[in-house]
Amino acid sequence: MMAFTDQIHELATPLWQQSFEHPFIQQISGGTLPKSVFRFYLLQDRYYLSEFGELHEQIANQLADAKGKRFLLAGAQGLKDGEMAVREGFFKTLNISAQEIKTTPIAPTAYNYVNHMYAALYRGTPERAVAGLLPCYWLYNEIGKQLISQGSPDSLYQRWIETYDSDDYTDSVDQMIELTNQTAERVSDSEREAMTATFLRSSAYELDFWQMALDQEKWEA
Ligand SMILES: Cc1ncc(C[n+]2csc(CCO)c2C)c(N)n1
């Protein structure tokens, strides 16, 4: 039988394809993405990454499976040492100040994406929440692998691409896929459907996240 993650990956193909083709990604690759857009993305992603780490810890606290728990706790630490540390360098390169970080509110799509994952956990189940984390790991890895062969003429965008193609990172993606499959094996058909819906919704938010940056999305006032 087809692995659960292969099934949900197939269902997400139309959404992921739109991410691959999105102007944000194409312009990262071409080096033409305006720095104002990338700055907006980084400032919003800072919120996302911090909540993503927090979610790892909160899901780990609730998950029955001890191995899954350990992986999620290690993932939270890896996030701080890896991606978040790389981002500190990006903030420096772009002269993004502590003041700017402090005064930038979370934008609607970033807020909705994060809250979708918390809702999966607190109005749903830890198993669903695991499925909600997976597009983040997996989609970025596929993007990294697609973009690395061509690279980007912009050194900052090249560094962004390299983050998502590294071997360490690819290992963590494989572990997250394995955790999702093991989790799916332990639950009922209806819970697997809920896991699928959560995965697809996270995939839709990943797509919206690029557009949010391009539009420099703001709250209605
Ligand atoms: C909106 C958004 N989605 C996914 C990622 C990528 N990402 C975030 S945490 C993590 C796990 C290990 O670092 C990965 C791959 C991102 N940066 N921003």
Order of helices and strands: HHHHHHHHHHH
Mean pLDDT: 96
| Total beta strands | 0
Query: SS-based structural class?
Result: mainly alpha
* CATH fold-level topology: Heme Oxygenase, Chain A
Distance between the termini: 51 Å
CATH class descriptor name: Mainly Alpha
> Helicity level, as a percent range?
over 70%
- Major beta sheet, specifics? none
Which word captures the global form? globular
CATH architecture identity: Up-down Bundle
SS field, number of helical segments:
11
- Strand-residue fraction? under 5%
Name the ligand types: ligand VIB
Low-confidence stretches: none
For the record, the count of structural domains works out to: 1
Assign the CATH superfamily: Heme oxygenase-like
Rg from C-alpha positions? 17 Å
Blueprint (SSEs and pairs):
Layout: H1 4-20, H2 23-30, H3 35-62, H4 66-81, H5 83-93, H6 98-103, H7 108-124, H8 126-148, H9 155-163, H10 167-185, H11 189-215
Helix pairs in contact: 1-11, 3-4, 3-5, 3-7, 3-8, 3-11, 4-5, 7-8, 7-11, 8-9, 8-10, 8-11
Bound molecules: the ligand Cc1ncc(C[n+]2csc(CCO)c2C)c(N)n1.
Ligand VIB binds at residues 45, 48-49, 52, 79, 82-83, 136-137, 140, 172, 206, 209.
